[in-house]
Design goal:
This protein is α/β, with parallel strands linked by helices. Helices cover 46% and strands 17% of the residues. The strands form 3 sheets. Strands 6-5-8-3-4-7 form a 6-stranded antiparallel sheet. The chain has a 6-stranded parallel sheet with strand order 12-11-10-9-13-14, with helices on both faces. It has a two-stranded parallel ribbon with strand order 1-2. The protein is elongated, with a radius of gyration of 26 Å. The structure holds flavin-adenine dinucleotide.
Length: 439
């Protein structure tokens, strides 16, 4: 399914209520009143469509990329909040219950309490949720607590919002449009039920267990999990999973990690995990035998099915995790395309799996360029961050135009590398990247 089709689908859902309102052909009102109603309708439909966007539908993230989906979610939520906030102030009509002769509510906007209170609650909750999401990283919130609050808050906003819309709205009083609102709300809630109840139930029937937790660099571990039973994960090298270790399958305590193993290596799945916060700081203490659950595969950072004459992998820090999966797969499947890995770290002890990388270089011919920003005095490799000059040297000639470029690392690194590659004439369709943060 092409990505433009998904985009059109979301636009269509968001515009459906506006279209139905317009098709009612009600007598016209002053333009500000029409804009007020339109803003309210659009805010509501965008918010409901967001539930579908965020429900971890693989096809969505596979086509658009998870970080693009998250960015879209943030921008759409902010736009919807602005529309919702301004719409009550735009009405010019008199605020009172419409008398019987004003059947189409052309001259009055309702001020009845039963119609207004749900809207007022949603009106306060929505910007609060958006502001909390924007400021989350600066607040002392546990991520899981924030996620739960965000989810419950969104459900309340959706419910109160629809209630207000059908009770107060001029156009939503129409039986067709009011049915559409309830159906859209139902679909949104079903999407949540599917993500947080049905799919976890399905996962509870397919448990995994931890088989090894090995240190692979400073404060970095490789965790291996293997299926308990005869199920297995069908994934592509470079994709990621939501990993839940040692919690109920219904728990919100799950984190996204790129898969560092190769599908060709068998059913065992591995993750390279860097200590960063409350879950990852304890990853080294996880005991083999601990039960795990995987919501996977997700993500688009994969070279499978993409025509390319060579493969360039550019990783910063723990961004090596998906690259390891791709390298292991290329090696294991005997892929003969030329491959270059540029791998940047702060110091030598942070390089994950240095011996295996050397072996891959010797056996598979992968060209590996290490770069350190704080090298020790014996270091003979590249120094500093990845620069346009380094990329020009490695990929500047015409033979590299048809390669695929896979990027994973800190956002600042991704920006520099993407811009430099595009300046080298690499088409953006040949550059795929993943950020490890949605902030
Ligand atoms: C697609 C993707 C792939 C990733 N792959 C890897 C990888 O291979 N190796 C690796 O070490 N790290 C990876 N990360 C980052 C990893 O998910 C976070 O470092 C980890 O979740 C931090 O959890 P914590 O509880 O230890 O830290 P916290 O202190 O709880 O969180 C630190 C930050 O991590 C992010 N985070 C935490 N929990 C979640 C969650 N459930 N969902 C989304 N973001 C969360 C938030 O931005 C949060 O501010 C990846 C992230 C993404 C989005």
């Amino acid at each position: 399914m092409p990505v433009w089709f998904l985009f059109l689908f979301y636009v269509a859902i968001s515009l459906l209520p506006l279209g139905l309102a317009w098709s009612q052909g009600l007598p016209p009102r002053p333009i500000l009143d029409e804009i007020a109603s339109g803003a309210g309708l659009l805010a509501m439909s965008v918010l409901l469509a967001e539930f579908l966007l965020l429900s971890r539908y693989r096809v969505v993230a596979r086509k658009a990329g998870t970080d693009i989906v998250m960015r879209m979610h943030q921008l759409l939520a902010r736009a919807a909040a602005i529309l919702a906030l301004i719409h009550p102030f735009l009405y010019t009509a008199r605020r009172q219950t419409a008398p019987d002769w004003d059947v189409s509510r052309q001259y009055f906007v309702t001020n009845e309490f039963w119609a207004i209170w749900p809207g007022a609650l949603a009106w306060v909750l929505l910007p609060t949720l958006v502001l909390l999401a924007i400021g989350r990283s600066k607040m002392d919130f546990k991520y899981e607590t924030w996620r739960l609050t965000h989810g419950l808050g969104s459900v309340l906003i959706a419910g109160f919002g629809v209630l207000h819309t059908v009770r107060a709205g001029r156009y939503s009083a129409d039986p067709v449009l009011s049915t559409v609102w309830w159906v859209l709300l139902g679909i949104a809630l079903l999407a949540l039920v599917n993500t947080y109840l049905l799919r976890p139930f399905w996962r509870s029937l397919r448990p995994w267990k931890v088989t090894a937790v090995e240190p692979v660099g400073t404060r970095t571990w490789e965790v291996s999990v293997t299926p308990e039973g005869d199920h297995k994960l069908a994934y592509e090298a470079g994709q990621f999973a939501w990993l839940n270790i040692g919690h109920s399958p219904f728990s919100l305590a799950e984190n996204p990690f790129s898969i560092s193993s190769a599908p060709a290596n068998g059913p065992e799945v591995r993750f390279i995990i860097k200590e960063l916060g409350d879950t990852t700081n304890k990853i080294g203490q996880v005991q083999p035998g601990t039960r795990a659950y995987l919501d996977a595969p997700h993500g688009h950072l994969t070279i499978k099915g993409r025509k390319a004459k060579g493969v360039a992998l550019i990783a910063g820090g723990v961004g090596i995790a998906p690259m390891m999966g791709i390298l292991r797969e290329l090696h294991r499947t005997g892929d003969t395309r030329p491959t270059t890995l540029i791998y940047t770290n702060r110091s030598r002890d942070q390089i994950a799996r240095p011996n295996e990388l050397e072996q891959l270089s010797a056996e598979h011919g992968t060209k590996i360029i290490h770069s350190l920003s704080e090298p020790d005095k014996d270091w003979t490799g590249e120094v500093g961050f990845i620069t346009p000059a380094l990329l020009q040297r490695e990929f500047g000639d015409d033979s590299h135009r048809d390669w695929i470029y896979v990027l994973c690392g800190p956002p600042a690194m991704l920006e520099v590398v993407e811009e430099a590659l595009i300046n080298l004439g690499i088409p953006s369709s040949r550059i795929i990247s993943e950020r490890f943060s949605y902030d």
